[in-house]
Design a protein that fits this description.
Layout: H1 2-11, H2 38-59, H3 65-72, H4 81-104, H5 106-124, H6 130-158, H7 164-193, H8 197-200, H9 203-216, H10 232-251, H11 261-283, H12 297-328, H13 332-349, H14 353-359, H15 362-379, H16 393-415, H17 423-463, H18 469-484, H19 490-533
Helix pairs in contact: 2-6, 2-7, 2-9, 4-5, 4-6, 4-10, 4-17, 5-6, 5-9, 6-7, 6-17, 7-12, 7-13, 7-16, 10-11, 10-17, 12-13, 12-16, 12-17, 12-19, 13-16, 15-16, 15-19, 17-19, 18-19
Length: 548
């Protein structure tokens, strides 16, 4: 017996954490036939429709935020919580979804959260004050966040390898198309029907989704005993850490970051909570998330690229509407029409990507997509006051092509070879990384725009000297203009001329700051290209069908 124990210790070293000898891992869907039933496709399409709605609700509300704030009596600073409460709840629930689906069964858990998501979506339209809206949006986020990772899990577990690229292409519509088209839909509904319809828009497709999932998902027994075995310490530390981090990111720029005691406390809570979560997950025998998946080359590098991609997706969807609104005076519907050329081409291109993956290495497609997405941002890097909707047409087309090409192959390579028992962790981690990237990017870009505007304003102001002939000439021209349009006093006209020059300097500084922001987004995507180049070649195209 001692000899047997010694041999076991040589195979599995004894540490402070109990470990079991396991059989070699078997990738998910290994023996699944290549033919897929209509019922399975119904589940995949229904689930990806839910993911689309969940992601859409991150962006669609931003187009109507000013009208929502007015309707519920929220101030400019407080109105941001309409978006923040949804994002905080969603990012917390994504990692929990796989485990809770195994407890209550995939069918029960997904159907229940879909129904609740629709209920809370409609309820948001009836909110009478900020407090009610924050609570309802949080519940909408808790239930909507479930729909994203479970759609990914259904694709990984119910489709054979030969068909997974098609499922990933459907999922890409939620990951890249929804953020791009959100402002378009939100702006149109807000300006033509009222802000309430931004929430009502979920109902019709949501009912269709509910029917599809009801008809296609198999009935399974609940495993409530798993609740007693749950990684509750990990769940609590993750929820506290992610919640504090997300709130800090959303509110940091407004509250002057760590100059605010509130933001400072949130930062401390986030660091402690997430550090404890990592320590617990790496030591517990049955962790909530298998973080060791990140040590695998393809999943690790793919997750890094996905994090940077999420930053660019949500960052560009945040910066471009802000530029059009503040610098060009566009309303919500006009902004939506500009951004439509980022979204609509993807409807045509994404369905073609699985076919391209049969002919072209998926890594090359992902690199090409990221490179084109980066190029579209670099094309916007040298903005002037004359750049508006028409001038943004071609950068938006390039961005649409890049986004359409990247998500499907990147997802397929990252999760290739993931075992069935790890699909829930892989889905949660991969999708959480993209959302975290977006949250961090939006927070960083808000601060970056402010700081770069201050920098350019200081540089431009120092070059505007009363001793300069060009400045004196411009002041004289403006003074004459104001006197010709009703100001009889030369002193008042001169003062207005100085104000006008100061305003022009601030506008020019802001335009330059937005250009710098697009350059930063392009640089982030260049790093994503480098991460993608670190991926190993994988048969992510599904070629070979049942051979896998």
């Amino acid at each position: 017996m001692n000899a047997a124990i010694a041999r076991a210790e040589r195979i599995v070293p004894m540490t402070g954490v109990s470990r079991e000898v396991e059989a070699p891992p078997v990738p998910a869907n290994t023996n699944m036939p290549a033919e897929v039933s209509f019922k399975t496709w119904l589940a995949v399409v229904g689930a990806t429709l839910g993911a689309f709605l969940a992601v859409l609700n991150i962006q669609i509300v931003n187009s109507s935020l000013a009208d929502i704030q007015g309707a519920i009596g929220a101030g400019i600073d407080d109105g941001g919580w309409v978006s923040t409460s949804y994002l905080v709840a969603e990012i917390i629930t994504i990692p929990l979804s796989g485990w809770l689906a195994s407890v209550f069964s995939l069918r029960r858990y997904l159907l229940a959260n879909t129904a609740l998501f629709l209920l809370f979506s409609a309820s948001c339209a009836f909110a009478e004050n900020l407090g009610q809206m924050i609570v309802l949006r949080a519940f909408q986020g808790f239930t909507g966040g479930v729909l994203i990772p479970l759609a990914f899990t259904i694709i990984m577990t119910k489709l054979p390898k030969a068909k997974q690229p098609v499922g990933m292409a459907l999922f890409a519509l939620s990951a890249t198309f929804a953020p791009a088209i959100g402002p378009t839909i939100g702006g149109y509904l807000n300006d033509n029907y009222g802000w309430q319809f931004v929430f009502y828009v979920n109902l019709a497709p949501g009912v269709v989704m509910l029917a599809m999932l009801w008809a296609s998902l198999e009935r399974e027994k609940m495993r409530l005993a798993l609740l007693r075995q749950g990684d509750w310490a990990g769940i609590v530390t993750m929820a506290v850490g992610l919640g504090a981090l997300q709130t800090m990111l959303e509110e940091g720029n407004k509250d002057d970051w760590f100059g605010s005691p509130f933001i400072l406390r949130l930062g401390v809570v986030a660091v402690i909570g997430l550090a404890l979560f990592l320590w617990i997950e790496l030591r517990t025998a049955k962790p909530l998330l298998n973080l060791r998946l990140l040590r695998r080359r393809n999943f690790g590098f793919g997750s890094i690229a996905n994090f940077l991609l999420g930053g660019a997706l949500y960052g560009s969807s945040f910066v471009l509407p802000l530029y059009l609104s503040q610098m060009q005076g566009y309303d919500a519907e006009q902004i939506g029409m500009v951004l439509a050329w980022t979204g609509l081409p993807q409807l045509l291109l994404i369905p073609l990507v699985p076919r391209l993956m049969r002919r072209i290495d998926a890594r090359r497609l992902a690199v090409l997509g990221l490179a084109l997405f980066a190029l579209s941002n670099f094309m916007n890097g040298w903005l002037t006051q004359d750049v508006a909707g028409d001038q943004l047409f071609w950068p938006n087309i390039v961005r649409a092509v890049g986004q359409a090409l990247v998500m499907t192959p990147l997802s397929a390579i990252a999760v290739a070879g993931i075992e069935a028992q790890n699909t829930a962790s892989a889905s949660a981690l991969f999708n959480m990384m993209r959302n975290l990237g977006g949250a961090i990017a939006i927070a960083a870009l808000q601060t970056f725009v402010t700081k770069r505007e201050q920098f350019h304003s200081n540089v431009l102001t120092s070059s505007v000297s009363l001793f300069g002939e060009a400045t004196r000439t411009r002041l004289a021209e403006l003074s004459q203009y104001f006197m010709a349009h009703g100001l009889a006093d030369p002193g008042t006209a001169g003062h207005e001329a100085m104000v006008a020059i100061g305003r022009a300097v601030r506008i020019q500084a802001s335009v330059m700051a937005y250009g710098d922001t697009f350059l930063l987004l392009g640089a982030g995507l260049a790093l994503a290209v480098l991460a993608t180049l670190g991926l190993r070649r994988s048969d992510a195209s599904g070629a070979g069908g049942a051979a896998h």
